[in-house]
Amino acid sequence: MLNINGLKVHFSKDQKILRAVDEVDLRVDAGETLALVGESGCGKTTLALAVFRLISPPGKIVAGVIEFRGKNLLALSEKQMAAVRGREMGLIFQDPSSALNPVMRVGEQIAEVIRQHFRESRRTAKQQALALMETVQLPNVEMIYGSYPHQLSGGLRQRILIAIALAGKPALLVADEPTSALDVSIQSQILALLKQLKNDLQLSLLLITHDLGVVAHMADRVAVMYAGKIVEEAPAPDLFTSPFHPYTAALLNAVPKISFLQNGGQQVFKPLGGRVPDLTNLPAGCTFHPRCPLRMDECSQKIPAVFSPAANRLVRCFKYDVEEK
Q1: CA angle, 95 as apex, 231 and 144 as ends, to 5°?
Q2: Is residue 128 part of a domain?
Q3: DSSP labels for 232-256?
Q4: How confident is the model over 2-24, as pLDDT tens digits?
Q5: 122-135 helix and 106-118 helix, angle to the nearest 10 degrees
Q6: pTM higher than 0.85 for the full model?
Q7: Range of 51's domain?
Q8: Cβ contact 122:103 at 8 Å
Q9: Of 154, 157, 196, 322, whose CB has the highest number of CB atoms within 10 Å?
């Protein structure tokens, strides 16, 4: 469905180059949910925007190929890309408060997508928009259709964003932190809705998140991103039971377990020390080595290649180079 090879996205900052996405290879297969995880600042949202060719100056896609259903999106004209964006691929932005037009009624924002891609009349577009609003389980759709974003709760606005992303009947849905701005009870409702829609509409889903609980609930396969690079890929069950990359293991160790509460708060979990490096001044060698408990001399000298130490597993770490030798 989606195949990304050698993608690089750079930003110019104070006469320096910020390498937000650095030689990323990634694929999303038909019908699967791929979760892209990592801390804030690792390049996840930039990767999503690059897929839709929504990188604005001073950012620029400087290398790579993004193929969707066999078409290189980077070779399309803007007019051709506009026909793909929203129609064949839908994007759910992470903050509904800023993603929706504040001076336009929310129902019209859904109907606008339908008119744009299917050339329907206003009457027909409204009826289809109302049907979509019911699909995403909005109540009182006629009333909400005429509402402005500020008149709705965060959960209702998020459902409107999902309806907008589905209005073009896409094959691929990209959800960028779709629950980060919501409280916990609403998060579970939105996740359940996305899972149901993905199955009912036979969508492929690229889910971008830093929440490993969301990953465990939703994903078939997981790609872990750090400082602009994919450092590990694995089927979701394998990643949780046997993480290969030290960064993946550190992320999992930083998640409080149920036993933490059951044992009166005595269960130890380890917050991940340090922070994502400045992408304009990356450390030499493996970018994770300053924070890595397993670092070797080699880690600070060379960038590790991608190794496949097990079936359907990829990892960018010298540890597996040593084991293969």
Answers
A1: 140
A2: no
A3: EEEEHHHHHHS--SHHHHHHHHTSP
A4: 999 999 999 997 888 999 999 99
A5: 120
A6: yes
A7: 2-88+170-324
A8: no
A9: 157
